[in-house]
Amino acid sequence: MGIVASVLKKFHGGVHPTGHKELTERCAIEPMPMPERLIVPLHQHLGAPSVPVVQVGDKVFKGDLLGASGGFVSAAIHAPTSGTIQAIQEHPVGHPSGLTMLCVVIAPDGADQWNPGLKGTADPTTLDPSAIRDRIKGAGIVGLGGATFPSFIKLSPPRDKVVDLLLINAVECEPYLTCDARLMEERPQDVVAGIRIMLHALQTKQCVIGIEANKPKAIAAMEKAVAGQSDIRVVSLPVMYPQGSEKQLIEVVTGRQVPSKGLPVDVGVIVHNVATAVAIRDTIELGHPLVSRIVTVTGGGITRPANVEVLIGTLVDDVIRHCGGLKSHTKKVIMGGPMMGLALHQTDIPVVKGTSGILALTAEESSGKTEHPCIRCGSCVNACPIQLVPCTMAWFAKTDQIDQLPKVDLFDCIECGSCAYVCPANIPLVHYFRYGKLTLQAKDREDKKKALTKQRSQAREERLAREKEEKERKKEEMKAKMAAKKSDVGSSSEVKTGSPTVSKKVTAKGGTATDSKGGGDDPPVDHAKTAKGTSLPEE
Amino acid sequence: MTIPSRLTVSDTLSFWTLETERAMPPSSLSFTSSPHVHGGDSIPRIMHTVILALMPATLLSILVFGWPALWVIVITTLTAVVTEHLLVKLRLRPSPVGDLSAALTGLLLALTLPPHAPWWICVVGGIFAILLGKQVYGGLGYNMFNPALIARVFLLISFPVEMTTWPHPVGLLGEEALAFGDAVALIFTGHMAPGEVMDAISSATPLGQYRMEVSLGKTVQEALGGNYAFSYFNATGGLVAGSLGETSALLLAAGGIFLLKKRIITWHIPLSMLAGCLIPAVLFWLIDGTKYPDPIFHLITGGLVLGAFFMATDMVTSPVTPLGQIIFGASCGLLTYIIRTWGGYPEGISFAIVIMNTAVPLLDQYTRPVIYGKTRKNA
Ligand code: SF4
Ligand code: SF4
């Protein structure tokens, strides 16, 4: 077991937010009545949006394709239930910008009938690893921990990398959330089945399931499920936020650090969320694409906290209503966990693949006091799991010294929020970091655009110069021809001295002509770049 | 929760432009940035914990030096608080005195003053600390120097006589103790009763005594023995002449450990500062024990413990990185030893810390930790 450290390592910093898991940890996963309509966004994952493949009025089965993957890093989107496509239109989604996004609206027919053509494979080991990857890709499976990175990519490591370990992230370090813990308690065999499929797809021999020690029941269930299978190990981890962050989890389990700007595979590890394992199992063994997920609905503002299996596209409103509605003193509704989740400004927003929780927090539960100046207490430095100096980064962002930010490693910040959690001055540090990142990205795009314009105008000038030269050359050629014709009547010696000069000139011009051809390749390249440049903001 | 390392930044946020963020519709829900929960720490909590940690030593100093000490503490602290309140009100901002930072500055300053300092020293010091030590920079968080110490340095240079007149520890209730009325008179007029001047009860601090006598050619033992009768026991317990806070190393250390336990401070600055002063003290003492006093003497006299736990650890004016804190602390300690042994002021702590305050921005810049996923080489 070379790669797994014999003693668990500790990552730097971290915090101990109050768990509040008792609200839902004993709530079994329950189904939800079919909502009146489902609004399925076509962009629920990291990467490019999906491309709609259905039309208004189409009848679809549960599991039919609604949107095809729109690029390499992208994911397919499927119908969460059977019914009619009512509209394909912009709708508000859970996004920090409050932007709308293209969504497919489905009116369920109530039958909730899977497409009869969807077939599973009872013994996945008979499948070729590439066939497994294709099916996972076709099923639109993305990381269900919240990052929503397309899963098939993480199962296709580059050829030159060796994967020693499949690490199952069942840490669930976000306070309040219990959906992963419940899943492990209720479906441990399916988790193991999913792991088997992934091990087979990766051709990896070893798996560790990392679970924080505050979920003894989930640990017990998983240990029972893997009993007698020495290649899958359940590891109980001391409770510490943000242990569920990929980088920190890898460090704790293997003692290795993922290089800055690198990927886990660089240290021989692939990390998948435990809920993703179950989704993969459902896809391979049952043939079902990803159309629902388990959501923890909780917080002091929820009347009846619960763990609910929710169809993708169900409105947050409907889910909250199913759980008894909001209490009147609710101050914030959050999609995801309290440390990294997104505060919603409206609740008619659809649940997507990455929605692990719906939290309604009261004023007492949530932060939001006035910001004071930094007193340089250093608490944030001690809490940062990346060992950044958050107060300095925030200072640069706040005072618009944007150029300084990359020098203090802003882009290594994982936005875990540990720094802001401990800050006695209540500085919304993560907010400043996002502002800094966005500003830098905007500037980057600007710079690229400028460079492109410059490049283009240069190319144009060059082309004009070439054309001018070309004209002159032709003129001269004509002159030379005329002269030659004239000299036909003159002495032959004149021709002999004249023609080499001409031919010399022609070769010289020929040289430039080739150059101009070489230069002529530029415009198409430009176009390619333009296409990329303009597509960037839409991504 | 899975956080991909490479794609988080560019992909999740690429279409979240700053403009659209501003264009969000009004809503009754609060939608501030994550995290949505907070650990509950606050500036007032920090300040009041530090004040609490200082209380045992403060109370002892009143017991040891009598009523005048109480007056010095009350006047200095009140001046600091009132100055802060008025200055911030002048700028039409809500008064920050509730955060207790001015009160703490006042208390710390009082602890560096002679126990029988006249009232105007306290007032001038309190105003200086808040006005020129803090508010001119923009208030809490922006000052470069420790406000209490910069005020003490100012007072020491401007009013050397008043700042180095040390009374005997006469006690609050003992035979030599001053009556309450006499104490008021002493602080406000400089006399206890007509004709009786303060010098009658003044004495030298152990550090002052050692420096003066050794510079006259005596040995440390002769300087501290004889009439002066230095006692380690009394010094540890605070029963010697000195400023209010230079008294009980024991109670101050207890307060410091309380702060460590409460995680208000970390070990880096206090430990490195003590080491920075005591290691050279050991070396020189071993070289010549008749010229250089032993390290215990250095530890329990003067303001070393107060400085290490309460002054150098002032958050605003010390580095935020662990390595920066260690270098800062060690340098403060070393400078203290140098000033104490060869400098012009036997109580070198304030100068040492104020000098090192100026190095803090540089220390922070050059001691950033090696972050996750990088090594020293490619950092
Ligand atoms: S925790 Fe807050 S107050 Fe303390 S140094 Fe960091 S940013 Fe400043
Ligand atoms: S949000 Fe960024 S800076 Fe703050 S603790 Fe997390 S990684 Fe460090």
Rg of chain A is 30 Å
Mean pLDDT of chain B: 82
The string of secondary-structure elements of chain B, in order, is: HHHHHHHHEHEHHHHHHHHHH
Structural class per helix/strand content of chain A? alpha/beta
Rg of chain B (C-alpha, Å): 24 Å
Shape of chain B: globular
CATH topology of the domain at 139-286 in chain A: Rossmann fold
Based on secondary structure, the structural category of chain B is mainly alpha
CATH architecture term of the domain at 139-286 in chain A: 3-Layer(aba) Sandwich
State the helix count of chain B.
19
Q: Which percent range describes the beta-strand content of chain B?
A: under 5%
Number of strands of chain A: 17
The main pleated sheet of chain B reads as: 2 strands, antiparallel
Commentary on this structure:
The complex is a heterodimer of chains A (539) and B (379). Chain A is of the alpha/beta class. Chain A contains 14 helices and 17 strands. Chain A has helices at 129-138, 151-154, 179-186, 188-202, 216-225, 246-254, 274-286, 316-322, 379-383, 390-398, 418-422, 429-488, 492-520, 522-535, and strands at residues 29-30, 38-41, 51-52, 59-60, 65-68, 77-78, 83-92, 100-108, 165-170, 207-212, 232-237, 269-273, 292-298, 306-311, 330-335, 342-344, 357-362. Chain A has a 6-stranded mixed beta sheet. In chain A, a hairpin with a 7-residue loop joins strand 7 and strand 8 (100-108). In chain A, helix 10 packs across helix 12 (429-488). The radius of gyration of chain A is 30 Å and the shape is globular. Chain A starts with 28 loop residues before the first strand and ends with a helix. With 379 residues, chain B is mainly α. In chain B, 56% of the residues lie in helices and 1% in strands. Chain B starts with 7 loop residues before the first helix and ends in a 13-residue tail after the last helix. Chain B has 19 helices and 2 strands. In chain B, helix 5 packs across helix 6, helix 5 runs parallel beside helix 7 (147-158) and helix 14 (268-287) packs parallel to helix 17. In chain B, strands 1-2 form a two-stranded antiparallel ribbon. Chain B has helices spanning 8-13, 18-22, 43-65, 67-90, 101-111, 119-131, 147-158, 160-163, 180-189, 206-215, 220-224, 232-237, 249-261, 268-287, 295-300, 304-311, 322-342, 349-357, 360-366; strands at residues 166-167, 202-203. At the A-B interface, helix 6, strand 12, strand 15, strand 16 and helix 9 of A face helix 1, helix 2 and helix 3 of B. One iron/sulfur cluster (SF4) binds next to helix 11 and helix 12 of chain A.
